[in-house]
């Protein structure tokens, strides 16, 4: 296996890896994110020996709980398949402690600081990584209290923060200006967990490490790019929270735009964090604000059989809510490479399947010898079941000159069956431990992404007469979706005749 690209020059401004005996502090340790994502990821890194030697983990939250309750809670989402992992989990829990305290008073943070000082007693320096698994309402105040009360006098600190980073350009800038005087850009790691996903991290390698992709990656060969996010479940249980954001703020302005940026950016000079992020910002700046005529929105209704609720059936959702749970948005990039190519972002809750993928559709081949030969498509399946496949035409074997659509298929669980694919949060926390900012969102990147989306969001918020189209829970989305996509040149003429994946025996499901 070649390790060519692993030679990542560290950015000059980047932080060094956390040394031995550092402490990771999880703020919001009693919450859902901590339980479901942060602690399982911390354990994943610990289990594979990827944490600095002597690391300690401290939880902090308002909830009063004893040691047993804390440990029960943080291990509730950790999978324990055998005795070996069970033993590792015991050792892991042995390095975890908890402090209860408020988010808005010095007192709690002073208690946290004394607890950290006890852990670090006898060490010449203290190095602390604060992970803010917190709602945005307490974000700034916690960041301020940490700086005031828990910032090491001798050593270093870094802080990981999670979206939402505001709800539009102004509120994002407000958040930035509240954080920036106290935490430097080098100390801040803004997580977009899509940047930690294995296939998203593969995009630059696929593009720039393969000349055949690299050479055709432009408006001369590519007709459209679709980035699709589908979830099968609705917002049941968190409708009230979701209603403040809607699908565009929830996954499109951040996760899907990040994927788009990786697909569209120019080749970075190196794999260093700043070189990559410079190119990402450049492509974002070449994207005009979204024109509402290139947007459709939807909201899920009851399922056709009436067993699944509509979005507004949720009692926590305001009556008559116009919040979109589905959107398709077309963006353009005004540069030499992409001018005129539609980048279609599609995202929805309560749809017919659960998947995230990028579909690059190539242009028609020159006609003449072929009548109606389907287009090539490159599909990057981000989840579930990571894979890369190319839909291509071939001669149907036998005494015929008929063509058939088949595929070049790299399905990870067949090709790399013995390799562990890390969870996105494992990959990103390890990057933060190593001081590598490449897969985190820089301040100017955040600003550029809000600039593209804010006018559309304001228009949707203010235009009371724009109501999302209803679609049944469990369907493909609003009925006009196919016509909308077709109007941007996307052809779906193979629907029903081609199916991926193929069966295990390598045979197609008889569908070709
Ligand atoms: C979160 C959104 O950021 O991403 C959720 O708030 C969404 O609504 C989730 O379900 C999707 O993440 P993943 O990793 O499951 O695709």
UniProtKB/TrEMBL annotation:
Residues 25-202 form the Glucose-6-phosphate dehydrogenase NAD-binding domain. Residues 204-490 form the Glucose-6-phosphate dehydrogenase C-terminal domain. The keyword Iron does not apply. PROSITE patterns: G6P_DEHYDROGENASE (PS00069). Gene3D superfamilies: Dihydrodipicolinate Reductase, domain 2, NAD(P)-binding Rossmann-like Domain. It holds the Pfam family G6PD_N. It is an enzyme of class 1 (oxidoreductase). Keywords: Carbohydrate metabolism, Glucose metabolism, NADP, Oxidoreductase. The keyword Oxidoreductase applies. Pathway: Carbohydrate degradation; pentose phosphate pathway; D-ribulose 5-phosphate from D-glucose 6-phosphate (oxidative stage): step 1/3. Its EC number is 1.1.1.49. Belongs to the glucose-6-phosphate dehydrogenase family. Catalyzes the rate-limiting step of the oxidative pentose-phosphate pathway, which represents a route for the dissimilation of carbohydrates besides glycolysis. PANTHER family: GLUCOSE-6-PHOSPHATE 1-DEHYDROGENASE, GLUCOSE-6-PHOSPHATE 1-DEHYDROGENASE G6PD. This is Glucose-6-phosphate 1-dehydrogenase. It comes from Myxozyma melibiosi.
């Amino acid at each position: 296996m070649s390790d060519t690209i692993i030679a990542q020059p560290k950015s000059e401004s980047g932080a060094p890896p956390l040394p031995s005996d550092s402490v990771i502090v999880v703020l919001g340790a009693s919450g859902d994110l901590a339980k479901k994502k942060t602690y399982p990821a911390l354990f994943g890194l610990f289990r594979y020996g990827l944490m600095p030697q002597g690391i300690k983990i401290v939880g902090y939250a308002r909830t009063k709980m004893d040691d047993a309750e804390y440990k029960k809670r943080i291990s509730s989402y950790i999978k324990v398949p055998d005795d070996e992992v069970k033993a590792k989990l015991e050792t892991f829990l042995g390095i975890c402690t908890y402090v209860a305290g408020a988010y808005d008073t010095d007192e709690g943070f002073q208690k946290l600081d004394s607890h950290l000082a006890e852990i670090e007693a006898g060490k010449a320096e203290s190095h602390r990584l604060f992970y803010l698994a917190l709602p945005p309402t307490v974000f700034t105040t916690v960041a301020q209290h940490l700086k005031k009360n828990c910032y090491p006098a001798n050593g270093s600190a870094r802080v990981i923060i999670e979206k939402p980073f505001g709800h539009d350009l102004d509120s994002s800038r407000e958040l930035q200006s509240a954080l920036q005087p106290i935490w430097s850009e080098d100390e801040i790691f803004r997580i977009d967990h899509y940047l930690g996903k294995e296939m998203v991290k593969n995009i630059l390698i696929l593009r720039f490490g393969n000349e055949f992709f690299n050479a055709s990656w432009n408006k001369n060969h590519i007709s459209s790019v679709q980035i699709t996010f589908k979830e099968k479940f609705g917002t049941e249980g968190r409708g009230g929270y979701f209603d403040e954001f809607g699908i565009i703020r929830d996954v499109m302005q951040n996760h899907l735009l990040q994927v788009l940026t990786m697909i569209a950016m120019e080749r970075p000079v190196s794999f260093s964090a700043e070189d990559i992020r410079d190119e990402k910002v450049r492509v974002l700046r070449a994207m005009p604000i979204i024109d509402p005529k290139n947007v459709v929105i939807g909201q899920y209704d009851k399922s056709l059989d009436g067993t699944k609720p509509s979005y507004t059936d949720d009692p926590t959702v305001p009556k008559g809510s116009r919040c979109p749970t589905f959107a398709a948005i077309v963006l353009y990039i005004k540069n030499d490479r992409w001018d005129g190519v539609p980048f279609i972002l599609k995202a929805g809750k309560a749809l017919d399947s659960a998947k995230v993928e990028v579909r690059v559709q190539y242009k028609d081949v020159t006609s003449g010898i072929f009548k109606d030969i389907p287009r090539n498509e490159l599909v990057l399946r981000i989840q579930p079941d990571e894979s890369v496949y190319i839909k291509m035409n071939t001669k149907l074997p036998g005494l015929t000159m008929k063509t058939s659509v088949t595929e070049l298929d790299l399905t990870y669980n067949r090709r790399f069956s013995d390799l562990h694919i890390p969870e996105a949060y494992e990959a990103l926390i390890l990057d933060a431990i190593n001081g590598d900012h490449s897969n985190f969102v820089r301040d100017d990147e955040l600003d550029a992404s809000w600039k593209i989306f804010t006018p559309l969001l304001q228009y949707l918020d203010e235009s009371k007469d724009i109501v999302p189209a209803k679609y049944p829970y469990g369907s493909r989305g609003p009925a006009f979706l196919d016509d909308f996509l077709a109007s941007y040149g996307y052809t779906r003429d193979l629907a029903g005749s081609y199916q991926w994946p193929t069966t295990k025996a390598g045979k197609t499901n008889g569908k070709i």
